[in-house]
Design goal:
The chain is about 65% helix and about 5% strand. It is mainly alpha-helical. Among the domains are: about 170 residues, P-loop containing nucleotide triphosphate hydrolases (Rossmann fold); about 60 residues, no CATH class; about 80 residues; about 55 residues, Winged helix-like DNA-binding domain superfamily/Winged helix DNA-binding domain (Arc Repressor Mutant, subunit A), CATH 1.10.10.10. The strands form two sheets. The protein has a five-stranded parallel sheet, sandwiched between helices. β3, α8 and β4 form a beta-alpha-beta unit. α43 packs antiparallel against α44. The chain is globular, with a radius of gyration of 35 Å. Keywords: ATP-binding, Nucleotide-binding. Pfam families: AAA_16, GerE. GO terms for molecular function: adenylate cyclase activity; ATP binding; DNA binding. This is HTH luxR-type domain-containing protein.
Length: about 950
Amino acid sequence: MAQQRNEPHKISSDPPGFVQRSKELGRLVSALNTAESNRPAVVLMEGTTGAGKTTLLGEVADVARARGFQVADAVTSNLDRFMSFSVVRQLFESLTAGPEAGAVKSIIGVGPGAADQSGAGAQNAAGFDELAPHQTYHELYRLVSGLADRGPVCFIVDDLQWADVSSLQWLNYLMRRATKLPLAVLLSCTTGVYPADPLQIAEMQIYATRVRIGGFTAEELSRFAELTLSRQPEPEAVKACHTATGGNPLVLRYLLAPTREPSSPPGADVLETPDSYGLEELGESVLAQLHRESEHLVRLARTIAVVEPAELALAAGVAGMTLPEAADGVRRLARMGLMADADKPAFTHSVFKDAITNSITRAARDDLHARTAASLHASGARAALIARHVQCTASKLGRWAADALYQAADALLNDGDATTAASFLIRALQEDVPAEFRTRLLVKLGHAESFFDPYQAATHLKQALETIEEPELLLDVTSLLSRALYLDGRYEDARGALSESIARMCASAPEFSAQLRLALRVTLPTEQFEEHDAVPDRVAVDWRRGDARGRGLAALVAEDLSNRGEDLTTSREAALVALSAGAVSIMQDPQRMMAAINSLIRTNELELALRYSSEAILEAHRQKQDLVFVLGHALRSRVHFHCGALAQSVVDARLALAKAQRMNLHHRHPAHVWSMDALLSALLHLGDVEAARELIEPIGLTSPLPDSWHHTSLLQGRGQLRMRLGDDAGALRDHLECGRRLKSWGAPGPAVLPWRSYAAIAHLHLGHSLEAVQLALEELELAKKWASAPSLARAMLTVGMATGGAAALPWLMEAEHVLRNAQTLLLRATILVELGTTRWHHGQQKLAREELAQAKAAAERCGSLPLLTKLAALPPEAVGRSDALPAVPVSADSPLTPQEHRVASLVAAGDSNDEVARKLSVSRRAVEFHLTHIYRKLGIQRRTQLAAMFYSTGSRR
């Protein structure tokens, strides 16, 4: 018996039955049932360390295999987050029966050296070639679809919180796409541990059935102890055990293991434990046992805990042991219940690994990671494997370590994890490397930081520029630096950086100098634009190449031509070249992406603009690129606005503005301003003037705005608001200042901002008919040069309104004809209202009714209350209102408009929203918008309050 007691106690890896977890196991098995009926199912188990998640996953995996599922599993660790597609590799590597295990190598690269193929050597000098992660996700999805054709599939991922960003993104992609596959995805996540990507985990929770696993209750613990000990424990022992462990199954098994001997009283050891026996005490107990066994065993266990080796040979080498010695040690650890498999160096649970790791000094852990990195480098392992150990040590290892970090960072950056990539590059800069390579590291670091910290990005890029002589690299780095400075609101610094590099390259590389001049003109407007007018022929050739550099240049060309109002065909072509590989391919440069999509809007390619802006939003959400997310929503808001979907335009603009505020962007940041501008335009055309006034309040109605492209656009929007508020003179000043800026910057084209049209209307309101006609005709000439249907139609509309009378009809008829087949519904509705109204007042009543009917339908689709109000002011027979109501007198002190007063009186009389809409010949949505404004102005919340107010004031109709 004494000999038996000296042997290490085994921690049972197979608990006595699943009595306490039968409900949770049933939830997992139900996912298999769903998958067998050709429907996907996702289950996410959440619980604390040691709650039994791993055991449950192992059990359900056995059930799935017995049912004929193709089971693929993966177990993560805290080092996996540093290696792209780590979980995906594990899943497909476990599918050895089919061709998928080999096919995945060609998609993400699984063999040794795979990361090197996409590393610095294969890139250009600055490493700016972008990958398309969505293509990788799609190809992996096709592999899963192929698996599903052969039978149901079960994917199991344990400890999801440590999964790498790329794998999490793919799992989310799979959950969205696999709507009809026989697929069960079973996941576990440890609560209280900050995941590698909280946003991706949160998105998975949307698709998954969540199963929470807690500790055993006292009753469950009693049953568990009875099954473990084969006898009934004493109630006092159960109570003490529950108090000490909190019902944690893993700790319970460890504490109850010694009491399984007949000579030990039930729960005796537990009663002698402290009042609270947690995981820290468990780790100390394990280490004490290891010390009693052997110092070699302690060294091996510590090596495995810190290094987390995939192969036993690596653990043996780092621990300074022979392979047979290490294999014997693992078997002994397995007999103790600490290792899951006698042939694999992996702990049964992270609690043991963490406890052992915490017992090692920082210097010792540092040395273990350094030796591991060196061993992996010597064996030709992947850069990502080497880098994650180099990252964990402060020891200087040399150029090879910096190379591995650079290559791993490059892959992470292409996969959308800029933050981790930057941390790798900062670590690489701590190595002693040649000056040329140090410059490359600084450039790549600045590129990564530009997505989340433009100030630091500018600092590192400036350091890199000091040593760069090669013209092509100078071009790339200067472009990056100017972008970082611009996004940080440092416009003069950005202009200075571009001008300095232009001067440096003027003679040695005129074609690159011309590209920087183009970037300067498009990004940072200046009144000295004439000196940069000439664009060499080389630029016109370069942007058609279609590679990464050519796509970025094409975006500049597209924006420049549309700014100038020249050559719509070439501007459209350049925008399409810029986006030829999708919005994802140009997202690395948010300014260029926005320039390309904005050029599509200006050239009336609204369907394409909607597609690419939506693609950018989706990918930005997956890659956590918040800036691109904001710009994408601002762009899509603009597209919806032109298409007449005003409510959707407001939604996108509010999403963009909310994200910009959560990012703490300065109110002068381009993304913040563009979001405000998009929201302002949509609100005004919806008729929500009060909300528009509140939006613009922080910058004021009269304050001067900075000289930048985005602030000038906002200046025009503010001018429209001032006109709606009755300040025609102030509106005119804003529009004329907008025009002065654009003309001085060499951007007279109407596609940029139709400021002349808005200024002409302000002139008309002020009685300046001659000035209005002059501006309208000037815009018409420029619109003919640009030849875009919306620009032409708007200019003709303005000429007609400025001309007035019967002479306006030909212009309005031509405007309607030009825009008849265009997608710009809001502008078409505006033209139809003016045309129908003019016809009605000049005796063409039959045609007027037809056009006003179309105008009403279009205005209702758009939800434009200003247009609907204009229609409501016409005689009833003009717009087909047979039961129109007489005008309702409105008192001078009433806060309501005449139309709002009419809606309020009908609602107060008891009419439903539908009845009001029918009587006023407007849409139900229009009535709801009116009621929102009425309630806000009157300070009420319910229809009964409105009725009481009308009865008390005698305002009933």
